[in-house]
Amino acid sequence: MAGAAIFLMLYNRVFLQFKHNRAKLAVSVLSLLGMLAVSALAGYIWAGYRSLLPAVAVLLAMGTGEGLRLMRRRRCRGSAPVADTHHFIRLMQPLTTLDLAVRRYRIPLPGWPGGNFRIVQLSDLHISDRLPAAYYERVADEATAAGGDLLIITGDMISDLQYLPLLAPFLRRLQARLGVYAVLGNHDWWSDPIAVQSALASAGVVWLANSYRSLPAANCARVRLGGCERPWSKGLAPWEAPPENPSEPLILLTHTPDNIFHIARHAPPDTLVFAGHYHGGQIRVPWLGSLLVPSIHGRLFDHGHFVVHGIHLFVNAGIGAAMPRLRIYCNPEITIVDLQGGGGK
User: N- or C-end of the chain: fewer Cβ atoms within 10 A?
Assistant: First the structure.
């Protein structure tokens, strides 16, 4: 048990960050077998209570870490959705790969005169022919029907280059008043970032990369929209460039929420960070939540709305599925965030 627990910690924080290939699978399997062999050998050499002491110490340390992480997660927990099409777990329906959820949040910004401003988020499309074309069409149509001022995509458009031709037709179905914007995710960078950028451009989607721009809202107010593709891409982050108007809220797209503490130390007030990457765990256990999350922070920010040092973080569970290509007790989702400035009704 101690060896398996150590492996799970390493798998979450280290191995899941690597590019998916046979080498990663081999290293993961060998590491698991190695951990189990070492722990079994220790139990054989130090028979009796002497072998239990280090095992118990490991399990207690990891249990304490999970407890502290749970306390920190509760302190950072943000608001629940004001509307959610999938409130409850259906125990008899564990397979949720195509069971699309739409979750809506409302964030007041009383000091900003921009009125009502709607952001619609998609993430982790992992577009392929492994999921029905009709499913992706439904996702695009529901995202457009939400009537967003902005429609944003927080990375991982594809996970296999052979499916790139499917991307542009999906993107062309997306519409929002001020346009569709995106950053790339780790799978996009691992596949072919130039080809993915070309597909975005051909569909009229603006690739933000590590830059920002100012966009109009209501009542002559504006918002700043920025991208952060670290750690897979280097470059000037949006909060490091001096804004023309510091009072503008910053809407920041980043693929991984692992950036949140760095962002929170540098970003201005009224910053909203939108991320994905974790797939909500993709396979969840009822009432226990996610088990495997590709994050240096473990399960701390696996899914939902959080407030980190005053910065709003929205972690989307994604649309597609990768490795394995299914979801269990974990709905794909569209996130809708309504900003309500002081100029709103």
Answer: C
On the 0-12 / 13-18 / 19+ scale of CB atoms within 10 A, 81 is buried
Q: How many CB atoms lie within 10 A of CB 177?
A: 13
Contact call for residues 277 and 302 (beta carbons, < 8 A): no
Tens digits of residue pLDDT in 20-57: 666 766 777 777 777 777 777 777 676 666 666 666 77
Dihedral of alpha carbons 272, 205, 173, 303, sign: negative
Could you tell me how far CA 36 lies from the centroid of its own chain? 31
Structural domains in the chain?
Answer: 2-75 (no CATH), 78-341 (3.60.21)
Residue by residue, DSSP assigns 50-83 as HHHHHHHHHHHHHHHHHHHHHHHHHHHB-PPPSE
Name the amino acid, one letter, at 82. Answer: V
For residue 160, the SS3 value is: coil
> What CA–CA distance (Å, rounded) separates 150 from 90?
32
